[in-house]
Amino acid sequence: EAQVTQNPRYLITVTGKKLTVTCSQNMNHEYMSWYRQDPGLGLRQIYYSMNVEVTDKGDVPEGYKVSRKEKRNFPLILESPSPNQTSLYFCASRGPNNYGYTFGSGTRLTVV
Amino acid sequence: AQSVTQPDIHITVSEGASLELRCNYSYGATPYLFWYVQSPGQGLQLLLKYFSGDTLVQGIKGFEAEFKRSQSSFNLRKPSVHWSDAAEYFCAVGAPSASKIIFGSGTRLSIRP
Questions:
Q1: Does the beta carbon of A41 lie under 8 angstroms from any beta carbon of chain B?
Q2: Residue A8 has what pLDDT?
Q3: What is the CA radius of gyration of chain B?
Q4: pLDDT recorded at residue A97
């Protein structure tokens, strides 16, 4: 089954404790992206990657890092999480020509 | 500026009634348009998409949307809603070479029994 898999689904952490949210897709998509979803704001792009070793900032990249060492994986790294990064995070991938994204099930992160 | 506006934050309709969710966009290039649905605790599922051609597009779960270029709109419709349609709906716009798609802030749909 074609899918984007994120882990963990839920995470509670403390301010300043580094964490990584993993994302993996099995569709051989070149393009992957991270979004965060906050009430009333819709989904905002954090980072994206057009291919292996090619990443770029989205609209709200501050406080986040990503890496793309292989095509299937695109982890999101929070080096020093803060409470304003409490949010619902989605990883997504798409094939060529922007024919719609496939989203993961989301990771609900709480930073206390 | 590129943007998507969903003017209705929350809509309640009776089961069996018709539904229309509004979406207006501002986009410099020829847009690709999408509607996604998010059920509680779930990820986003693509309902339908418009790239070109017939401006009335059919999607999954009985939904359809009409692209009106003159009004910069892409409204979502369903003739008769079911209780299982209660969810949040997102309109989005993008382009073939774009690095992202831009989402509206969403419309939450509640169904009255």
A1: yes
A2: 96
A3: 13
A4: 66
> Is A90 in a helix, a strand, or coil?
strand
- Please report the pLDDT score of residue A98 as a whole number: 58
- For chain B, what is the mean pLDDT? 92
Between B51, B97, B100, which is nearest A48 by CB? B100
Nearest to A100 among B43, B46, B100 (CB): B46
Task: Please give the Cα distance from B35 to A14 (Å, whole number).
Answer: 36
Question: Which of A96, A103, A104, A76 lies closest to A31 in space, CA to CA?
Answer: A96
Give the other-Cβ count within 10 Å of A48's Cβ: 22
Tokens of B16: 């069996």
pLDDT above 80 (res B95): no
Q: CB–CB of A98 and B101 under 8 A?
A: yes
Residue B50: both structure tokens together:
């418009």
The DSSP code for A84 is G
Q: Name residue, tokens 């291919």.
A: A51
Q: Of the ranges A20-24, A79-83, B51-55, B89-93, which one carries the lowest mean pLDDT score?
A: B51-55
Cα distance from B105 to chain A (closest Cα, Å)? 4
Reply yes or no on whether the pLDDT at B96 is more than 70.
no
Do A42 and B97 count as a contact with CB atoms less than 8 A apart? no
What is the chain A residue with the closest CA to B33?
A: A100
